[in-house]
Design goal:
The protein contains five helices and four strands. α1 links the parallel β1 and β2. Helix content is about 40%, strand content about 15%. The longest helix has 22 residues. The protein has a four-stranded parallel beta sheet, with helices on both faces. The protein starts with a strand and ends with a helix. The protein is globular and about 40 Å long.
């Protein structure tokens, strides 16, 4: 496994944070990117998401949102989505990709990482910690020898 794509809706909050955390956790073993199903193409990361991430040593200030496309998905070995409905959305666009799509919080016992856009700093903090927990779980899975 070499390429992982993290997908949320706008590609300005959750997926940029997850992208940077997963890339740091897996060092040079993986190429990690992110995209949105309804991306705010060309926009930077959400200011509150960037502020909370920075408070935890994660820089997403240089992030630029991009749209998920079937072509982009086909280039990936694994696609990690933030909500179950996003798996369905990827499957609607490109059914052949469904075998590569899993939830970002697959291994934490949760079933979704909520969208913090427009919410309080405290909510952004909660989402950041859920993403960080899920990242640690993926790091353990992705470092296993198959």
């Amino acid at each position: 496994m070499r390429k992982v794509l993290v997908v949320c809706m706008g590609n300005i909050c959750r997926s940029p944070v997850a992208e940077r955390l997963l890339a740091a956790a897996c060092e040079d073993r993986l190429e990690v990117g992110s995209a949105g199903l309804g991306a705010l193409v060309g926009h930077p990361a959400d200011a509150m998401a960037a502020e909370v991430a920075a408070a935890h040593g994660v820089t997403i200030a240089s992030h630029v949102a991009r749209q998920f496309t079937p072509h982009l998905g086909r280039e990936q070995d694994l696609i990690l989505v933030m909500e179950p409905s996003f798996r369905e959305a990827v499957g609607t666009q490109a059914p052949e990709l469904l075998g590569r799509v899993m939830l970002y919080d697959q291994w934490t016992g949760a079933s979704s990482i909520p969208d913090p856009i427009g919410r309080s700093r405290a909510f952004h903090e909660q989402v950041f910690h859920r993403i960080a927990d899920a990242t640690r779980a993926w790091e353990a899975r992705l470092s296993m020898k198959w």
